[in-house]
Amino acid sequence: MNLNKVFIIGRVTADPQLRNTPAGASVTTFGVATNRVWQSKDGKKQEEVEFHSVVAWGRQAEIASQFLVKGAMIYVEGRLRTRTWQDKQGQNHKTTEIICERLQLGPRAGGGAAPTGNPAAASERDSKPEESPQAPAVEDIPIIDLEDDIKPEDLPF
Questions:
Q1: 7-37 residue pLDDT tens
Q2: What secondary structure letter does DSSP report for 125?
Q3: How would you classify the pairing of strands 92-105 and 45-57?
Q4: Are 74 and 11 in contact (CB under 8 A)?
Q5: Helix, coil or strand: residue 63
């Protein structure tokens, strides 16, 4: 039996950019930073940061580009894929990325609601009293679970 499954919770390293393949499929690539903290044998705090490339397709790509910003917390579930390519100078390159199968947006401090196209929701949001800065409100985290399959002909590489 084989298993290729990845779960990460981290922070987005840069604003995602939405692209479309020639076939019209939406694709977004973004980075996520995760960290590990431990104490060394001499009692000093140690920290290690790992950077991950994430690729989201279809509706998840659109949602990621619309709602994610640099520094946002995100949960990504997916699988690892390593791909190779050759640049214009003939150099071979290799990268490992997480193909997003499910993503979940993290909580937002300050109780800010997600942007919507509904002006009534915006006015309702604006009329709410300010939250205390000591205890920022955290909105419910939406779960995004799409079952779209990625077709090889939709891949841009």
A1: 999 999 999 999 999 999 999 999 999 999 9
A2: H
A3: parallel
A4: yes
A5: helix
153 — phi, psi (to 5°)? -70, -15
Q: Residue 125 half-sphere exposure, CB side, CA atoms within 13 Å?
A: 14
The terminus-to-terminus CA distance of the chain in angstroms comes to 29
> Would you place residue 1 in the very low, low, confident or very high pLDDT band (cuts 50, 70, 90)?
confident
Strand 26-39 with 17-20, pairing: antiparallel
What's the Cα-to-Cα distance from 113 to each of 85, 97, 156, rounded to whole Å?
Answer: 41, 30, 34
Domains of the chain: 6-106+141-154 (2.40.50.140)
pTM above 0.85, yes or no: no
Asked if residues 52 and 81 have their Cβ atoms less than 8 Å apart, the reply is: no
pLDDT band with cut points at 50, 70 and 90 for residue 143: low
**By three-state DSSP, how is residue 65 classified?**
helix
Q: How remote is the C-alpha of 114 from its chain's centroid?
A: 15
Short-list 32, 20, 27, 19, CA closest to 77: 32
Token pair, residue 122, equals 């915006």
